Amino acid sequence: MKVLSVDPALRNTGYAVLERQITSGRKPSYEAITYGVIENGRKIRQSMCLVAIREQLREVIEKHQPEVCAVEGVIYVQSFKTAITMGAARGAAILSAAEFGLEIFEYAPKRVKQAVVGKGAADKQQVAFMIRALLGLKETPPHDAADALAIGLAHFYEHDPSRVTALADKPSAL
């Protein structure tokens, strides 16, 4: 099974496609098929950033054919402007996945960190380090890509009946 996972932001959207392999009698293994960051410069209008997010994610979906999408849930921010901007980027990512008929799941940032690091208050460096170790990557991915990889792993962990430590609350499907 393949999952597209997205850590949406207007200027730096992290994305990843992970695959779970299940071999009879063995624990599942996970592979990062691709990952990266959709970077939109400061001079690019917000509307064009949203188009870039949608289009680049469409290309990833067309190329790698994931079956589902996992996206970071809404986070608390102190500024309404920031919340609206983040929501718009999230909407562009969700639209891209929805256009391909992918079922979309959302995961709270604390749940993702708990799943991959073991504590919900982990910082970005801890997440990136654990992602490198868990996936056997040769280099530590950029923080936004590492967050996307972590979201994908959290999705697989949540939907793996053989795991003893399931996440406490179930993800919400969009």
In short:
With 174 residues, this protein is an alpha/beta fold. The chain has helices at residues 46-64, 80-99, 109-116, 124-135, 143-158; strands at 2-7, 12-21, 29-39, 68-72, 103-107, 172-173. The protein is 43% helix and 22% strand.
Could you explain how this protein is built, in words?
With 174 residues, the chain is of the alpha/beta class. It has one domain: Nucleotidyltransferase, domain 5 (2-Layer Sandwich). Helices cover 43% and strands 22% of the residues. It has five helices and six strands; from the N terminus they run βββαβαβαααβ. It has helices at 46-64, 80-99, 109-116, 124-135, 143-158; strands at residues 2-7, 12-21, 29-39, 68-72, 103-107, 172-173. A six-stranded mixed β-sheet has the order 3-2-1-4-5-6, sandwiched between helices. A hairpin with a 4-residue loop joins β1 (2-7) and β2 (12-21). α1 runs parallel beside α2. The longest helix has 20 residues, at 80-99. The two termini are 19 Å apart. The mean pLDDT is 90.
Per-chain topology:
Layout: E1 2-7, E2 12-21, E3 29-39, H1 46-64, E4 68-72, H2 80-99, E5 103-107, H3 109-116, H4 124-135, H5 143-158, E6 172-173
Question: Which descriptors apply to this entry?
Answer:
alpha/beta, 174 residues, 5 helices, Nucleotidyltransferase, domain 5, 43% helix
Gyration radius from CA atoms, angstroms: 15 Å
Write down the secondary-structure element order.
EEEHEHEHHHE
Average pLDDT, all residues: 90
CATH architecture: 2-Layer Sandwich
Task: Classify the secondary structure makeup into a structural class.
Answer: alpha/beta
CATH domain class name: Alpha Beta
Query: What is the CATH topology assignment?
Result: Nucleotidyltransferase, domain 5
Sheet having the most strands:
6 strands, mixed
CATH superfamily: Ribonuclease H-like superfamily/Ribonuclease H
Give the low-pLDDT segments.
Answer: none
Strand content: 15-25%
Strand order within the widest sheet?
3-2-1-4-5-6
- What would the principal axes of the Cα set say about the shape? globular
- Count of DSSP H/I helices: 5
- Number of E-type strands: 6
Helix content: 40-55%
